[in-house]
Amino acid sequence: MKKIYSFLLMALLASAAWATTVTFDFAANGNTMFDGITASDTSSDTGDFTQSKSNTQGDVTITVGAGAKMYAVYGGGIELRMYSGSSLTVAAAEGHKITGIEFVNTRWSEPTASNGAFSDAVWSGDAASVTFDFGAQCRLTQLKVTVDNGQGTVDPDPDPEKTVITDFNQMAELEDGTEFEFQGYAIVVYQNGQYLYVRGVDEDNYFCNGLIYGNAGIQYEPGDFIPKGWTATKDTYHGLVEAKNPQGLEQATEVDEYEEDYAPFDETAYFSYLCNLDYLSYFVNDYLVVKGVTLTAPDNRHNFTITLDENTIAGYDRFGAEFPEDLDAAYDVVGVMSVFDETPQIIPISITPNDPFAVQRELWDAWYNGQDGEQFTVADRLYVVKATKAQEPEEQSSNYIYVTDNRTEIEYNYYGYLIPMDWTPDCYAIDCQGNEELYNQIAGMNVIEAGTLRVELASNFTNPRLLVTEAPEEAEVEEAEADPEFMFMNFNLNDTLVADGHLICNIQGVYKVIDGKEYLMGMDENGELWQPIALDRRYIGQAGQPKDGDLVELDQVVIKLNEAWEVRPEDDENAGAPARSRMATFAQHKRAAAQAVKAPKPRKAYRDDDNYYENYILCPLNADFIVTAVNDVETKAAVSSVQYVNVAGQVSNAPFQGVNVVVTRYDNGTVKTGKLVK
Fold first, then answer.
1. What is the spatial distance between Cα 147 and Cα 125, in angstroms, rounded to a whole number?
2. According to the model, what pLDDT value does residue 266 have?
3. Tell me, what DSSP letter sits at residue 218?
């Protein structure tokens, strides 16, 4: 399968074998890089470049032209902001060449370069200097410049008789016995004796795998970049493609700072494809981990089996991994994917006891990216909103405990950069699956300690639940934190309701009984009631009985979904947007081919249906129906005055245009708030 590689590697692809990378870190050092420039916000001019300013690091000098600004970002950090008409020049020291520049940015408007070429915020070329002219705003946090150190660059006119390749997929296409020179990117993932497993990148910017076999003469560490220019002979051994008898390997000159690039790929979800010869080309030479598998003991020829669910793959103990004594337990196997006589096999490197909850995830990450059935430990401190005693017919369960992280902002890691984002507190139901003792333990907590709740995710695309089988730890907190003011969303049903399952909110609407069933409704601009959303009393029983037509407010209402939302296939990307707009996954190693064959998620309800609101159920967590407008009641007292209140709360003796609440005062001193009228 293909895996996307990080932005850092783009710059490295353009670098020469003897290149170094110089980083201009505006985010960390912007206040000290340019004489007389101190970062400021828009209210101050101390960060303005009124004339060109330069900064030199190593063999590279950058010059920022007039019109730019060193900007102090709200919440911390600094950005170099280039505006229309400003310029940025990058120049190498005498005898050196600029071969790559990566623009690390929070907002990208591609400038015009005096030479070279752009691709995804990365410049590539071969020049003593390059000037960038900006036609729109660009916000830079770093500039990473790759420069050769004067020892030369890759020969632009290689020997036509020499076979030169730049990725390991190309190596697989060569005839056995072909000698070649490798001028591509290679990062070390594992080395054992004469076996050197590496990752490269193909012409489509996806990871590909390679095996260098022979006496390397050098001991590498995972994450080391192997300098370009080494040679080897292509060979195929039992279906395994190798770069055999390498010559000219050099000690690493760069080390990858992103561990994700050289960590083993988690192939547990694709285990059945590992076992299938038809998919072998996607995985061969892969450095991987499969979790929760069972093993047999190696026989006298080092052969054994690895099984997950009903799928089994061959194993071969080539590297002498330490096998456990208890083979009835589940284990995680880190190894490399191989082939022998057209049979897929895994060569183990390490075998460790399986902990299905080893991964820690914040709730917002599970909400965006989680898949049903995933097991993890919740990294957040969770606040108990409400423990309920009710049947949940949608899931044939009962006794939910609703929790929230109670946060309003999150930060997600985008290739090493923390990006802030507004966040509506996510609410999940803890489902103890009928275990009354466990339910009582968790229901008695106010705050659940971070990193102690081990869960399995369920119903994430409708009404998210956390299945638990053991109690977490209660957090020791101050009294104020133990009883926080929960930051729920507020909905007024006069507007279109946009929500997701198990969202806890405060809501306002008109109470109506239609054909014996209870609803909350909104009122449109013409004063007409609309979008009747069913009220479900599973948590409050018959308590709280407003009158038909009352305008009521409810706090702590659980909004549930009957079905997951779906975008119509015929709609364009902007029409009928789903309620849960899933953020693109942060994992850098998504597997396109395996994704294509995964079963589709069960999404059936459409947000743009005329009766979309029938997909909602409102389940109050308490019976306090706050009546803000009630029906007229009969009275024998004479009316002394009548006033009108509009939706903004303004009071008048004459009706407002639009929706009014009638307030009637009687001679006996009583005051009645009447019906909603236009």
1. 11
2. 87
3. S
| Cα dist from 218 to 191, 262, 428, whole Å | 10, 18, 52
Are the CB atoms for 457 and 376 separated by under 8 Å?
yes
The full DSSP string for 113-149 is: ESSSEEETTEEEEEESEEEEE-SS-EEEEEEEEEEE-
521: its two tokens: 């409704």
Q: What is the pLDDT of residues 501-528, one digit of tens each?
A: 999 999 999 999 999 999 999 988 777 8
**For position 616, what pLDDT does the model report?**
95
Band (413; pLDDT cuts 50, 70, 90): low
Expressed in angstroms, the distance from the first to the final Cα of the chain is: 62
Cβ atoms 648, 660 nearer than 8 A: no
Q: Six-digit token pair at 91? A: 């120049």
- Residue 636 burial (CB count, 10 A): 7
Phi/psi at 461 (5° precision): -95, 0
What is the number of alpha carbons within 13 Å of residue 241 lying toward its C-beta?
22
DSSP 542: T
Sequence-ordered strand ranges (E) for 186-330: 187-192, 195-201, 206-213, 224-225, 230-237, 240-247, 254-255, 265-266, 287-295, 303-308, 311-316
CA pair distance 503, 619, nearest whole angstrom: 10
- Confidence label for 474 from pLDDT (cuts 50, 70 and 90): very high
How far does CA 144 lie from the centroid of its chain?
25
Q: Which pLDDT value is given to residue 370?
A: 85
Tokens describing residue 439: 């339910």
Q: Output the six-digit token pair for 305.
A: 């089996």
Are residues 638 and 666 in contact, defined by beta-carbon separation less than 8 angstroms? yes
12-37: pLDDT as tens digits:
333 333 567 888 989 888 888 999 89
* Strand 98-107, strand 179-182: pairing: unpaired
Burial class of residue 171, CB neighbours in 10 A (0-12, 13-18, 19+): buried
Task: Give the separation between CA 505 and CA 573, rounded to whole angstroms.
Answer: 29
Angstrom distances, CA of residue 162 to CA of 38, 168, 230: 54, 17, 13
State what percent of residues in the chain have pLDDT above 90. 42
Judged by DSSP in three states, 595 sits in helix
Judge residue 153's burial from the number of C-beta atoms within 10 Å of its C-beta, 0-12 exposed, 13-18 middle, 19 or more buried: middle
Q: Residue type for 151, please?
A: Q
Amino acid code (one letter) for 187: I
* C-alpha torsion 526→527→533→538, nearest 10: 170
Q: What are the tokens at 238?
A: 């039992």
pLDDT band at residue 74 under the 50/70/90 scheme: low
Question: What are residue 450's phi and psi, to 5 degrees?
Answer: -60, 145
Helix (H) or strand (E) holding 382: strand 382-387
- The closest of 491, 525, 520 to 505, measured between CA atoms, is 491
Radius of gyration of the chain (CA): 32
Identify residue 397 by its one-letter amino acid code. S
Choose between 343 and 596: higher pLDDT.
343
pLDDT value at residue 421? 78
Residue 83 DSSP label? -
Nearest alpha-carbon partner for 110 in 100, 122, 101, 99: 122
Least confident of 19-23, 389-393, 396-400, 505-509: 19-23
Looking only at the bridges linking them, the beta strands covering 551-561 and 626-629 are antiparallel
CB half-sphere exposure, 306, CA atoms < 13 A: 28
At 507 the three-state DSSP class reads strand
Tell me which of 101-115, 168-182, 250-264, 299-313 is least confident: 250-264
